[in-house]
Predict the 3D structure of the following.
Amino acid sequence: MTYEEALTYIHSVSWRGRKPGLERIRVLCDLLGNPQKKLHFIHVAGTNGKGSVSAMTDSILRAAGLKVGLYTSPYLVDFTERIQFDGSPISHEDLCRVTEAVKAKADLMEDGPTEFELITAIAFQYYSEVKPDVIVLECGLGGRLDATNVIDESLLSVITNIALDHTDVLGDTVEKIAGEKAGILKGAPCVLGHAPAGAEKVILDKCREKGLPLIQAADLVLSDVAHTREGISFRYHSLSLFTPLSGVYQEKNIKTVLAVTEELKKQGFAIPDEALQKGFSSVYWPGRFETLLKEPRIIFDGAHNPDGIEGAVATCRALYPDERIILVSGVMKDKSFDTMVKTLAGISGKAYVGAPETPRSLPALELARALEQAGVHAVPCDSMTKALESAARDAAENGGVVLCVGSLYSYAELRQAARSLAGA
């Protein structure tokens, strides 16, 4: 099986029409000999912040000398980003070999796995071979019925935040969504990043029901916090720390990560101050208020729901308070884009829009109409590349900062377009 054949097989498996549940992933894991039972997990759920929290946790634990697996989604440029070990993506060769082995078992199933279930099983099988000390395991969607929740136990459950997203699947209130996220709680403490009062109560009640401690990351105190275009500097107790991740929303994620490390220390993990310093300062997590080009300045933020858009807008106001903001956007048609455009209208009067290269994309014309109704002059473009080129030309001629938001699925195309503009 070649790399292209492996990806073709993985992407050919449809989730549409499948009933949510853990039955298929359980059957597949059984056929593989339950590789997940040999592994140790930090299980991460949440509406936003899962990736950033997972990446920072991974970086700190590796800085502490541990061999760490990192399982995330979606990928931005190369599929192998989803399954990482010891700071590197799975090799094409290993992906092909493990995919072929998993396919042989999946082909025996009467009700075959969905794409995400298949990828999760591939990750478990791979990790059972390379034997990491711990795996930072990010949920794909929700928690209770997410394929990652096939694991029997975890060292720690983490819920980064609760906000409205995927309401057609998870529920139309933060309380219902919190109930789904809290489905990952097992026999281990839970770290909660931040959540509205109603959602927090749901999680607290679930912890009490299961007799599990709830660690409130919001109670941690950071001092001397400084947000700059290069990252965030802060103090935690007497320790001076810095992360190159920008975004005012990262402050809450940092607290969540610190709460995670404090709890892991209680469990016997050796995480010295030096590991915190090195881990925070060396973390790399693209697509989160990332500067793709400095002149004209082009920023990409993967915000794709109302809560994420609010964070991106707040960061823009904090770091570029006097700059004209030019939007580049493309969104998925299942997102609450009407709410998002109203927030975006608060910082920008001009947008260039396209459609990310996926069947789930909202047509550019529809997004342009929504932005126009919110008071933003929007120019529909044939592609995300054309949208960025037009916005960059506007910024060069009239001044301003280009902010790309709406979907992580447009990252690879926009990064390449920015590099082309730079002559790279």
